[in-house]
Amino acid sequence: MADTGTKTRPRAALKTARPPLYKVILVNDDFTPRDFVVQILKAEFRMSEDQSRRVMITAHTKGSCVVAVFTREVAEDKATRATDMARKEGFPLLFTTEPEA
Ligand code: TYC
């Protein structure tokens, strides 16, 4: 095969450049009002009204939906904050995180 000129970087350098990513997942439930879910998505994840409604409806119909992907700390922080906002209003809405791939 022809030499493409691409050099393999050391493992340590690659790891520093790309930390593992985590998905924030919105979980459906039977009690949280749709509009409240949309408000949370807009507030915590800075999503538009349109995007928020699509994600909410996907979770509603399929059971869950990936909201966004972040580094682990950011993903866990956002999932906790969003879940806490719902708890304060007495809703069982849940955001979880899991490693990507
Ligand atoms: N299923 C809820 C209802 O019908 C709305 C909802 C959607 C709740 C998505 C949670 O992640 C969720 N009121």
Automatic annotation (TrEMBL):
<dbReference type="InterPro" id="IPR003769">
    <property type="entry name" value="ClpS_core"/>
</dbReference>
<dbReference type="GO" id="GO:0008233">
    <property type="term" value="F:peptidase activity"/>
</dbReference>
<dbReference type="GO" id="GO:0030163">
    <property type="term" value="P:protein catabolic process"/>
</dbReference>
<dbReference type="GO" id="GO:0006508">
    <property type="term" value="P:proteolysis"/>
</dbReference>
<protein>
    <recommendedName>
        <fullName>ATP-dependent Clp protease adapter protein ClpS</fullName>
    </recommendedName>
</protein>
<dbReference type="InterPro" id="IPR014719">
    <property type="entry name" value="Ribosomal_bL12_C/ClpS-like"/>
</dbReference>
<feature type="domain" description="Adaptor protein ClpS core">
    <location>
        <begin position="18"/>
        <end position="96"/>
    </location>
</feature>
<comment type="subunit">
    <text>Binds to the N-terminal domain of the chaperone ClpA.</text>
</comment>
<keyword id="KW-0645">Protease</keyword>
<dbReference type="Pfam" id="PF02617">
    <property type="entry name" value="ClpS"/>
</dbReference>
<comment type="function">
    <text>Involved in the modulation of the specificity of the ClpAP-mediated ATP-dependent protein degradation.</text>
</comment>
<comment type="similarity">
    <text>Belongs to the ClpS family.</text>
</comment>
<dbReference type="InterPro" id="IPR022935">
    <property type="entry name" value="ClpS"/>
</dbReference>
<keyword id="KW-0378">Hydrolase</keyword>
